[in-house]
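Hey,

Quick one before I head out. I ran the complex with zinc ion overnight. Inputs first:
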Amino acid sequence: MSAIQQLEELKTTALAELDEIADLRRLASWRVRYLGKKSRLTGILRGLAGLSLEEKKAVGAAANKLKLTLEEGFEQWQQALRDKRVLASTEKEGIDISLPGRFQPAGRLHPVTQVTAEINDIFISMGFEVVEGPEVELDYYNFEALNIPREHPARDTMATLWVDHGTDGGQQPMLLRTHTSPMQIRVMEKVPPPLRIVVPGKVYRYEATDATHIPMFYQIEGLAVDKGITMADLKGTLYEFARRFFGEDRRVRFRCDYFPFVEPGAEMAIECAVCRGSGCRLCGSSGWIEILGAGMVHPWVLERVNIDPEIYSGFAFGMGIERIPMLRYGVDDIRLFYGSDLRFLRQF
Amino acid sequence: MKASMSWLRDYVAIDLPLGELARKLTMAGAEATVIQIGGDRWQGVVIGRIAAIDLHPNADRLRLVTVDLGTQQPTVVCGAPNLRLGDKIAFAHTGAELIDGYSGQRAVLKPARIRGVTSSGMVCSEKELGISDSHEGIMVLSADAPLGQPLADFLGDTVLDLEVTPNRPDLLSVIGVAREVAALTGQSVSVAEVSYPEAGPLVAEEVAVEIADPDLCPRYCASLISGIKIGDSPGWLKERLTACGMRPINNIVDVTNYVMLEYGQPLHGFDYDKIRDKKIIVRRAGEGEVLVSLDGVERSLNREMLVIADSRRMIAIAGVMGGANSEVSRDTTSILLESASFNPASIHYTSHGLGLTSEASMRFERAVRPELTLPALRRATQLMLELAGGQAAKGIIDVYPGQKERQPINLRTSRTNQILGMELTAEQIAATLSSLGFELQKAATDGDFRVMVPYWRSDISLEVDLIEEVARVVGYEAIPATMLSSSMPRQDPAPILGLKKEVRQGLAGFGFQEVITYSLTSRELLEKVVTAHPLKPAPLHLANAMTADQEYLRTSLRGNLLSALAANIRHEDGAIRLFELGRVYLPRDNALPDEVEMLCGLLAASGGEKSWNASSETIDFFAVKGVVESLLAHLYIAGSYIEAGDSGLRPGWQAAVIVNGDKIGVIGELHSKVAEAFEILRPVYLFEVSLAALLPHALDCRPFQPIARFPAVVRDIALVVDSRVSHQQVMGIIRSFALVGKVTLFDVYTGRQVPPGKKSMAYRISFQSKDHTLTDEQADKILKEILDRLAGELGASLRA
Ligand SMILES: [Zn+2]
């Protein structure tokens, strides 16, 4: 068969095949087959070199013409198929988009975890470092070192759960920490000033359970010790925390209060969000909600950890964590936090 | 502490609104609220007299009481035990708003039929009137209460209710509150001089006092009054006591209570005639020595408890409560009045050891200054003579072994400003402290003072204590708010914090809900999660657990989490995913326990939830394994899994999680016995990881891996192997070859198309080089080597 005849035949089959093609994927392989590097057409064009000048001219012209024809055919057919596809996808009846989607189960962190992280972040941005400490403590760290010796009336306000660990070994009494303050001592024993820390964690009380009392809850402790730290720094730090956490418009109250391990001592309250200070059931008609206890680290506490109170001063504060989501979300029963009811937890 | 305004005004002028006064007191340390006694809250309540008491026709314990109101004589039903003909009482007409004695809620009084008798009105208890919590009987008014008058006109008062912090026993007195008010409002306090005739014999000849334990009793003062007549106190005194929340008893007891409220010094009156040999000995109790206290309870004391005794026996628990054997009764004619000072810790120990707290012990354990004993004793003696007659013996017993020279405290203006962050002048500081009764002397250095603490304050011993006093009176509002200006300390957060955060976020992303449960649990619950006994390690036990289900410190998170799951299953029909990240407490010898951060998660299959397009979500062993694999991948950690023998999990359906040779946790299906114990019917899969064990493998710095630039050659193989051959064994061989990239198991088949005892496993292996494009021939050569080794070591053949 002459080259010209071959080209004719190729044209017939290629175009006939093209007519049958209904999708773009097969169209692409048609193109490889008839126009690709390994196609017969390419082979014929490559073979031109071995032909006489006259033949070269005739076959070359016919081959190039065929190439153009096939390329044109391809382009047209491609466009037609594309148009058809668009038409098909728009003409077809739509779906009921109101049917529910396939739900991705979403987990959430416990509200106390969330709030703790939020508080941590505010203090981290003010240069405080987060540390954690043991929940089972020695009497010394929980009480003695914080100026709460045995038979001190302040112990009555923190009813203690004691760990039964036998009397052998002459050990100190072991207890479940009643506050996060023991970490003040543990950190100051190890780290020389300057220091700024916050300590979130569980604390325990010997208390009957009701809507406002549970035997285990969370606190966060703060401590800053350096040369020249003042009560004004304490007030400023706490006000900044309150501003960022509760918002610009909530009034804050800073009043005198007593804790054995600080002097002077203070308490911070925020304006009740419900009554805005005029008094209601939530705030016990005072208009204020107590948020935290604070004060300047007592000189005896500093001396006990070999920090000279004439050179260094510091402030400390401690607050209960559950109160905050309770106030924020209007939760009226603290037991819900540790009841593990998904219908409650999934709301946060 | 409740202090009535009319009483306070005896000592200090108050010319600012009460709300403002309460605010000032609150800001200065004692949270104060204003309570209105009576006023419009007592509308419809009038003074009446019990005119007749008759038996109720249908009830043994009820009485029909006819009350004389002057103009009317209504009859009401009443069950109070203290009804007495002729007593003045508070009568509420129907329509009056009272506090329900049982519910504590305010309610309007309605006419009622009680056991067939109509009762219109009521004789009120103190609780019903909101005066105190007492609801055991009706409130009896003084005899001079005017018949028919509104109760509010007679008894109405305003009371300041102060929450007093433990360091301020001085505020547990009306004079103390007056001093505080004076300092905060720029007034001064005036307390009337006390004087009385001493017409009796010399007190020292009538009674001897010996302090055997001066460390527990630094001072003991006493006076003697004979020829007294016991009776009711006058109305004004009863009303003040009532307003302060105390019940009037008789003139002698009322005076001791009144002066305690006035001065803050507890007092005790003994019946002088009951004191054997007229000798008072302040000593420690004998071990097991028994005394019946005034409340009628027999108390067994010990060597650490201080008592007041006569020559033969104990007659009072010092500073806590008197004994019944020396109690003042109707026949008492002579009173030995005690005003003493006791060691606060000792009183606290005794009161808590006996489970007996009193107004006296509450003050003594907060440290009452010994200087206070004498003025209070003289005041009480004067008042008793006034109210009960009789004559006072000459002089006062005053045994004072604990007398100490009062030392001044140095106060520096510079230090004050340095602590407070303020700029107060020496004059401001001096004026502030003077207003509180401190005496100041200028020290040698300019701006420094030598400060004497007033005798009523027991809480001031250091310079910082004085600095707080200055700040309190100047006002905490005046302290500026500044930001920390010192240098930032070094930050070195513990790696476990970051790991905990990543784990929590990862699991929440995989659809797990975090729960937090109590660390306190029961032994029963800890034992419920394992099938092997005894429990190891033995959990730490609490010495004073509140309830049986909070008696132990948990050694595993499983029990609480399974309880949580069991409770939620009742209302959740979809699959449930829960996790807790928290500590377990592992006992150690002679040390605090090891508090290990643990992670436990549960995955429970759906309980038949239906959905139109329910994705065929499979919850099985491989679902829980996938969670741990994903979590480890999230942490850039590679784990492997080996068979495990956890007694809480189903045998053969569990695996230990291994990271770099360390066992860091376990996964598996819950043992059916455990599931049964929790009454869980759905399949449950569990994972448990020790974060402490995982932590060393969680690198915080991973070197960058270049992205492959040369194409991969992919080959699929289907192997037929013995059914006991594990995927891990096959992977071990495939992965040992160089140039092997990603390997995926894409099919596992057992059935008719493979011989019995065999299974088919299909893998897609991709071969890739870092530095050149692999040819098909190169890839096939490695594949052949792989197949040879699989055949040699595992007996694997290619599936036909
Ligand atoms: Zn409010």
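The radius of gyration of chain B is 41 Å.

Talk tomorrow,
K.
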